[in-house]
Predict the structure.
Amino acid sequence: MALKGISAYKKGNLKQDIANADPHKLTLMLFQGALDRIAYAKGAMARKEYAQKSEHISRASSILIHLRDTLDLDVGGELSENLFSLYNYMIERLTDAHTQNDQMQLDEVSSLLGPIRDAWLEIPAEAKEEAYRLQNDKKQAL
């Protein structure tokens, strides 16, 4: 009974965090969410809890698909194209990990995604502000 209350409290906090987050923070939350789901899937796989494993891998894949599909390939150039390919690769590895019950492939995806999340954390505030300004200018021009 107490766990339901804690779960509801966490969901409420998450909704509030999302509502108050800027695009940089939202992207960071997505990275962390994918890494968390991969870790949960790995634990479920080890415990042979295949329904939970499947759900966690599916959620991690959905996050990576979202990250991939929101890349602006026209603006981002080669970097965006490389990230697009890397996200595709990670999605494929998650699918393989699911079908083959292979924890090493989950570890591989985590090892690829972790440095991207870490680099995202290191973006200077000035660069974030400039990106938001450019994005707003682009929206206003349309």
The two ends are 51 Å apart (CA to CA). Residues 34 and 60 are 5 Å apart (CA to CA). DSSP finds six helices and no strands in the chain.
